[in-house]
Design a protein that fits this description.
Elements lengths: L27 E4 L8 E6 L9 H15 L8 E4 L3 H13 L3 E6 L4 H9 L3 E5 L4 H16 L2 E2 L6 H18 L7 E4 L5 H13 L4 E7 L41 H8 L5 E5 L1 H15 L5 H16 L5 E6 L21 H8 L8
Parallel strand pairs: 2-10, 3-4, 3-6, 4-5, 7-8, 7-10, 8-9
Antiparallel strand pairs: 1-2
Length: 359
């Protein structure tokens, strides 16, 4: 007889037709050991998406919206500029649907991201890091024009914020139905998450304050300087407030058109900068104290959420978005100081019994 005290599972009650049907419905998880007393802190773990990031949502919707509109033809090559997560999501979607994919990416982003995309069948064209995000973006535009490829336009397409309005926001509304939700904390990469969330939360949970964050080293939005744009809303130049920062996936060197909607409509209540050092420190703390492995961007969201938690009224409920997994950062500063070999304490443990020892 099964011990009923053992945790049990019963399956999802459905069979999935493809990996794409598993996108979304990511869990909200309580942070038990770090939150100040009297405050409930939760994270929305987007690494439960099948390719391990929030960008799986927009990747799927960009392709399916283009299929519905007839702007993407069967077998046509898809091309996009990405810091990694959108490219990985697109590689998953294109592998399942049979589209060739070419990704352009600055060579400053982590090597494991390139390898993951190539593992999923994509071609990765690197651009010089000195040309920043604008350089990889312009390279994708050039390739699309030269070869007649479909440009995904993650930074401009309505399909981006639309999927967060239809899925991410609806999941949060459902998960917190009948409960408080005082704050939601998120950064921006393309701006799709905050824009989609604000459309729903402003209407259905107006008491919920939306906290936006950006790297302290790259205060594009807080600078108040407008983004130079081309006729299609694409960036015409690098934003003057940008400086390199370690929070990969957050804040390219331009303000995306998708984010502009949230800026223009005041889709957030407060804008809080966060340093790369704090982002890394909180990602490490979350892993060591809660067993939740997120990337530097997730650490940044948590760092800001902890600031909010320290000043929030007793009983407050806070949700922080965790965009991806820490495994995507093995060759970045997130894993600096974490050794491959045994340290002295581990060697002492090895020597504490006579057999099977590494000398």
């Amino acid at each position: 007889m099964t011990d009923l005290s053992i945790r049990q599972t019963r399956g999802r009650g459905r069979l999935f037709d493809s990996i794409l049907d598993t996108v979304g419905d990511t869990p909200v998880i309580r942070v038990n050991n770090l939150a100040p007393e009297g405050v409930r802190l939760y994270v929305k773990a987007e690494f439960f998406n099948p390719a391990a990031s929030v960008k799986d949502r927009l990747a799927l919707n960009i392709i399916e919206a283009a299929e519905r509109a007839g702007t993407l033809q069967p077998g046509q090559t898809v091309v996009e500029a990405t810091s990694g997560n959108t490219g990985i999501g697109l590689a998953m979607v294109c592998a399942q649907k049979g589209y060739p994919l070419v990704v352009t990416m600055a060579d400053s982003f982590s090597v494991e991201r390139r390898r993951l995309m190539r593992m999923l069948g994509a071609k990765v064209v690197l651009t010089p890091r000195a040309q920043k995000g604008t350089g990889m973006y312009m390279k994708a535009v050039e390739l699309a024009r030269e070869h007649g490829w479909f440009l995904a336009h993650q930074f401009e397409t309505p399909a981006n914020a639309d999927i967060h309005e239809a899925t991410t926001a609806r999941e949060i509304i459902g998960d917190f139905a009948g409960d408080r939700l005082d704050y939601v904390v998120t950064g921006y990469g393309t701006g799709g998450t905050v824009t989609g969330l604000s459309r729903v939360l402003r209407r259905e949970r107006p008491e919920t304050k939306i906290i936006l964050s950006e790297p302290a080293a790259a205060p594009l939005v807080s600078s108040g300087v407008a983004q130079a744009r081309g006729a299609d809303g694409a960036p015409a130049a690098s934003h003057p407030a940008f400086e390199p920062h370690p929070i990969q996936g957050w804040t390219p060197d331009f303000i995306p058109l998708v984010l502009q909607e949230a800026i223009d409509n005041r889709g957030y209540d407060e804008l809080i900068p966060v340093s790369g050092a704090d982002a890394i420190a909180w990602a490490k703390t979350l892993a060591a104290r809660e067993g939740i492995l997120t990337g530097i961007s997730g650490g940044a969201s948590l760092a800001v959420a902890m600031q909010i938690a320290e000043r929030a009224a007793e009983g407050s409920v806070i949700l922080a978005m965790l965009p991806d997994t820490g495994e995507r950062y093995l060759t970045t500063p997130l894993f600096e100081g974490i050794p491959e070999d045994m340290d002295e304490e581990e060697r002492a443990l090895s020597r504490s019994t006579p057999g099977y020892r590494m000398e």
